[in-house]
Amino acid sequence: MNRRIKPVEACIESAERKGLERTLGPIQLMLLGVGAVIGTGIFVLTAVGAERAGPGLLLSFVIAATVCAFAALAYAELAAMVPVAGSAYTYSYVVIGELVAWLVGWNLILEYAVAGAAVAVGWSGYMTGLLQSMGIEIPLALKAGMFAVEGGGVNLIAVTATLTVTGLLIVGTRESVYFTTALVFVKMLALGAFIFIAVPRIDWANFQPFMPYGFGTTEEGGVAKGVMAAAALIFFAYIGFDAVSTAAEETRNPNRNVPIGLIGSLIICTTVYVLVAAGAVGTTSYLELAGNTEPLASILRTLGFPTVGNLVALAAIIALPTVVLMMVFAQTRILFVMSRDGLLPEKLSTVHPRFRTPHIITMVTGLFVAVVSGLFSVDEIAELSNTGTLFAFVVVSISVMVLRRAQPDRHRPFRCPTLWLVGPLAVAGCLYLFSSLPKLAQGRFAIWTAIGAVVYFLYGYRRSPLGKQ
């Protein structure tokens, strides 16, 4: 069996023949990336990360961001060369081959579906708490899934949120981004308020000891602890920046704007994360943060700003749906391209005649995420989304280096600087983070990948146009 590599020219030709409307500019892409990244990770995982790493959480954020930065540079070079939808799936298809591309796409499907459902369920929890504070009690059968807790039924709030953002995505990408932009402003305003209040009140004594559980990953009471254990978890907080590359086909001048969107959104998010983490562990002992489900709001209340704390909690409630929107958006674009390539049923890549969006695959994806968020608890498989992302980052980083060797003279609108340093560091960093994840998550990743291989050989391998040439 050959590798079935799809030429770059063929990808661009497919996009032109059955493509999406180009409406997005560099600022919209950066806001799209920030909207996808800043969400559950910083509003919730700050406390969990502090519990695992102590004040060393700051280092965990920097490590995760550094690995993402190396991968972002690799993404930027390929996104500028192959300005079509599909992200890591498409890039690996044109460099390594169809089987690896399918496995990348398969794992990205799981990543975005799980992440979207997880955020929807988390948002539902915030919303339920707000309604309870207003004296409105939601019955258990309507606020928790039947497979999440005993006595649960359908998480109606999570389902409603998912279906709403799905409808926005069907109506149009531009409208969805306008909605995201408005809510990104709300999130950034809330985090800015936290930084403005907390950072000047840092007590440097709270940073001692800086790494109470050490640098590497160790098991303590059944929980992985250490700076690297927290980095492997905190990596979830950066999932989404690569969603910018899935919008390449809907971007004006993608050769220039996609790299700006990728790198710009990552810089903004990293700066905000480090400042928020410093304010959190610098004003409150990491021991007190453990188990807190709304750490930023609680810290502000403790510092004597209860009204601001409540507003930050409200901002999280208002803004978290942008993350659900971006997870659904990214998954639909990957499925759209896989369908257009013949590896999934062609009907899925139908474009709406009026809205110029892939409405069928968007509806299928939205319904799937709604069912998962409505019926299940996704905490046990949340870390699985990291495994799929890390796998994609490794493949993209390798793809850039392979293409540099195989086609050194091909025009590159954006060139990854010092690639032979950045590329290996990206691969090594991703593998290190992967090894720091729980063994259970690693095992589930292996099982899911094996299932994907079986599906490919039963369906995609036989129907791929490249196999008929």
UniProtKB/TrEMBL annotation:
Its subcellular locations are: Membrane
Organism, scientific name = Steroidobacter flavus
Q: Per its UniProt record, what Pfam families does this chain match?
A: AA_permease_2
Q: Which residues cross the membrane?
A: 27-50, 57-76, 88-105, 112-132, 152-171, 178-202, 222-241, 262-287, 307-330, 360-378, 384-404, 416-435, 441-459
Membrane-protein topology: Multi-pass membrane protein
Q: What is this protein called?
A: Amino acid permease
What are the alphabetically sorted keywords of the record? Membrane, Transmembrane, Transmembrane helix, Transport
Q: What is its main location?
A: membrane
